[in-house]
Amino acid sequence: MSPVGFNVLAWSAVMSEKLNPITERLKTIGYDGVECFIGDQPVAAYQKFGGHLAQLGLKSTCVMVVGPDQNPVSESAKVREQAVDFIKSAIDRAQAMNASVICGPMHSAFATFSRREPQPDEYKHSAEVLHAVGEYAKQANIILAPEALNRFECYLCNTMSQLLDLIRRTDHSNVRAMFDTHHANMEEKRFPDAIRTIAPVLAHVHISENDRGTPGDGHIPWDDTFKTLAEINYTGWMTIEAFTRNDIDFANSINVWREYNDPWDIAENGLKFIKKMQARYAG
Hints:
Layout: E1 4-7, H1 20-29, E2 33-37, H2 43-56, E3 59-63, H3 77-96, E4 101-104, H4 120-139, E5 143-146, H5 160-170, E6 177-180, H6 181-187, H7 191-198, E7 202-207, H8 222-231, E8 237-240, H9 248-253, H10 263-280
Parallel strand pairs: 1-2, 1-8, 2-3, 3-4, 4-5, 6-7, 7-8
Helix pairs in contact: 1-2, 2-3, 3-4, 4-5, 5-7, 7-8
C-alpha cells in the first residue's frame, strides 16, 4: 500500500526549526513522511531538517519550481544552463535531507507564458535539461517527477498525454512523472484515462482537493482516482498538497487569497480519508 505524506507548505515554504513541532504532530497523526519546498536556503538547513525527520522515523519528498531566469524551455542556451545548475542545486538540498523524490513543474518556468502554444523546440529543450539533471539525480538516488499544471500556471504540460510525451523524450530512468488531482480536475476529461496514460512512468501522486482544502470535502472524483491507482498497482507516495495563507509570501505567489480549511483539519481528516479509500480498493 502506498505511503502517505503531507506537504508542509500548508504552514511554510521556509526551512526552519519552526517546522519541527509540526512534523512531530504529523508523525503522531500517522503520516509516513512529509514533503517540503526546496528553496535557496543553505544545504545545511535541509540536512538538519532531514536529521530531525530521521529521528522521528519520517521519510521525505520535495517539491520545487523554476523561474524565468532558469527556464528549461528558453531560447537562450545560457538560461537553459542556469536551469540545469538550479535543478542540480535542488537535488543537492534534497539529498542532504535524504529525500527520495523531487516533484513539481521543473519542465518549464512557473506562470511564465510565451502567448503561444508549446513549440517543438520547447519540448526538445526541456527534455535535454531534464535528461542532464536526471544524470545528476541518479548519483543522488533521487527520482525527479515533473508535474503537469493547469493552463493558468503553465502552458508546456497541462495533461498527462503531454507529460508522457515529454518524459519519453527525456529518456532517463530517474525522470518520471507526477499526477496531481487538483490540476487534473481542470485539464483532464476523465481521471481513469489520465492515470492509465501516465501509469508507465508514474512515480508520485498529489492528493489535492479541487479547492486545495481537505481531501474528500470537494468534488474530485476520488473513487475513480483510488480505484484506478489500485488497478495499475501504484505503490508510490500519495502526498496531500493543500494550501493556506500561513506563509503570506508563498500564498501570494500562487494566488491563494483565502483560507480553505484549517491545516490540522486537512491533515487529520485528509489522512483518514486516504486510508478509507485505500482500504476500499485494496487488492
